Amino acid sequence: MTNNFKRALSEGGFGVVYHGYLNGSQPVAVKVELLLRVHHINLVNLVGYCDERDHLALIYEYMCNGDLKDHLSGKRGGSVLSWTTRLRIAVDAALGLEYLHIGCQPSMVHRDVKCTNILLGEQFSGKIADFGLSRSFQLGDESHVSTVVAGTPGYLDPETGRLAEISDVYSFGIVLLEIITSQRVIDQTREKPHITEWMGFMLNRGDITRIMDPKLHGDFNSLSVWRAIELGMLCANPSSEKRPNMSQVVIELKECLASENTINSKNQDENSNSSFEMSMSFDTKAVPSAR
Questions:
Q1: 19 Rama class: left (phi>0) / alpha (psi -120 to 50) / beta
Q2: Which domains occur in the chain, in start order?
Q3: Contact indicator for 165, 107 with CB cutoff of 8 Å
Q4: What is the residue-averaged pLDDT of the chain?
Q5: How does strand 126-128 pair with strand 55-60?
Q6: CA-CA distance, 235 to 251, in Å (whole number)?
Q7: Looking at 42-46, 115-119, 148-152, 177-181, which range is the least confident one?
Q8: Which stretches of the chain are assigned E, i.e. beta strand?
Q9: Rounded to whole angstroms, how far apart are CA atoms 224 and 174?
Q10: Is 112 an active-site residue?
Q11: Long-range contacts of 11-15 (CB under 8 A, 24+ apart)
Q12: Which candidate, 146, 149, 114, places its Cα nearest to that of 130?
């Protein structure tokens, strides 16, 4: 179509645009770079494309458990995502964004990070999806600061004049607060409509049980929850200078998940020992009974 990428028309946020011909006669502009060079275990994989007469489609891998938003809202039904599972999904999504920011050459900004763009596969592994608004930038190029507003209301960086990697961090902070609370990002029925304002209001009361998703029924460790809340609020800080980068977010979330797993394992061991001691205390027969 492009005669081996012979003629470049321009180079923008979506990669290099080449001149080409469709069916050998119709002039077209071909954007080729964006999806072809992005490969990571925590990004939804592009399998291929279809261009057959009037049928145009991009083909992605199937994510059998849908999107994170449906699970948090209860629309999917079934069991509630445990706190440990939510932390794992958060780690997966953070790793995907970290790859876009520092693993891609040139780096990429997603620009529409939200729960509906985090898809869940088998065992509820999380992957970032929908690169429709993504932009790529050369490292060291001042063009990494974009003035084009893009994204979803509620997730948008308050510093709307600066859309760079740190804006993805803000959006991820909002996602993390949703994971913790299952609250809507914007809810006009609340005293504080935006989730960051509501969180600040609730944190002043110091009652973690009123912040956490009630569907968890208190099945979580308060230490890991407080660390996650602090991280979410830090990512969603109105000042971009006070936010961490995605590599720092990944480190903190992994430590948070590790502490939760350690506590869960300890509790399971204690429960097992208690069950064993109880069974021994009631086992007073010298010989086994008939079956």
A1: beta
A2: 8-60 (no CATH), 68-264 (1.10.510.10)
A3: yes
A4: 82
A5: unpaired
A6: 13
A7: 148-152
A8: 8-12, 15-22, 26-31, 46-52, 55-60, 107-109, 118-120, 126-128, 135-137
A9: 18
A10: yes
A11: 13/134, 13/135, 13/136, 13/137, 13/146, 14/134, 14/135, 14/136, 15/136
A12: 114
Active-site position among 92, 112, 157, 168:
112
Residue located via tokens 């629309």:
75
Tell me the two tokens of residue 51.
């261009």
Calculate the CA 227 to chain-centre distance.
Answer: 17
Q: What is the DSSP-derived secondary structure letter of residue 31?
A: E
- Residues, the chain, total? 291
For residue 21, list its beta bridge partners.
27
Structure-token pair, residue 145: 């600061």
Q: Quote the pTM value.
A: 0.79
pLDDT band at residue 24 using 50, 70 and 90 as cut-offs: confident
Given a contact cutoff of 8 angstroms between Cβ atoms, the answer to whether 174 and 118 are in contact is: no
Cα distance between residue 67 and residue 109, in whole Å: 21
- Is there a contact between 151 and 170 (Cβ–Cβ < 8 Å)? no
pLDDT band at 190; cut points 50, 70, 90: very high
The Cα 228–Cα 236 span in angstroms is: 12
User: Across residues 179-183, what is the average pLDDT?
Assistant: 97
- Asked whether 243 and 166 are in contact (CB, 8 A), the reply is yes
Neighbours of 186 (CB within 10 A): 14
**Whether the predicted pLDDT of 83 surpasses 70:** yes
- Quote the DSSP letter at residue 88: H
Straight-line distance from the first to the last Cα atom of the chain, in angstroms, rounded to the nearest whole number: 76
Which is more confidently placed, 204 or 148?
204
CA neighbor of 164 nearest in space, from 184, 142, 146? 146
